[in-house]
Amino acid sequence: MTGANAHLGRSRRACCAHANPATHRRFIRTLGEMDEVRASVVIPALNAAATIGTQLRALSAQTYDAPWEVVVVDNGSTDTTVEVCEQFAAEIPRLRVIRCERPGTSAARNAGAAAASSDLLLFCDADDEAGPGWVGAMCAALERADAAGGAIESERLNPGRASYLPRHPDHLPVSAGFLPRAISANLGVRRSAFEDVGGFDETFTYASDDTDLCWRLQLAGHSLTYAPAAVVHYRYRDTRSAVARKAYRLGRARARLFREYRERGMPRPRTVGVGLRWTRLAVALPLVPVLPKVRWWWLENASAAAGQVAGSLRYRVWYL
Asked: Is-above-0.85 flag for pTM?
């Protein structure tokens, strides 16, 4: 927990700078204007020019009555991400782009939280799309809890693939048999709770940082609720290499979570479950070349299993 607090402190001091002078002039706001802000939407972005326009357009259509802002955190983009954001300056009056030099979505989110002007921090991603009323629904959820996770819809942005993509449950899932968690693509946290636990742990560079944050919040006594009206349309990876890479990272991070939380009650996978998992992978292998649904399922699960093996070796735990 001390490490997470240190990361958040560094984010406040040195992580952020405006991407370029033109962006500074375009987006800077007066202190009085920023003091009115009720909620801050934080979006980490790395080479997101192809998708962030969809997210910003959805946010520009939000109808929340109180003043709110959008903080896009450019995490080292080499494409036209910043220029795309500039195009929405008139549609989203309180839109800012800042820059975070340290790599990783955790660092970017911490930087955005540090730069945000409000007490309600709403996190979403640059490649998804917030549903109508998302800002208002998330703010309402944070009136009754310290943190909230919204609903995930997976058909809108994944045409032709919905039949074989995993479906998100209509509740906050209990992750790894331990505690509920929300995903950072649709997460709201009160600033007081966020700062109490030190924000995102930046050593979780690309996977499970949201699970870790949700668990630390709950273990520190903060409440986490489900906000079904806060819908985000989720975009899955659309190439085999991207699916495999994400699943591998998640599997590897799961082993690290076990190292961090086993003494707090996170269980080890049951031996029979591990055996069944590898058996299913072996049985399904002949169907991979001929059935797309099986192919994507196998790729994701085999990559996650390989990640857990690698994570077990890396973190010196037995978590298969």
From this structure: yes
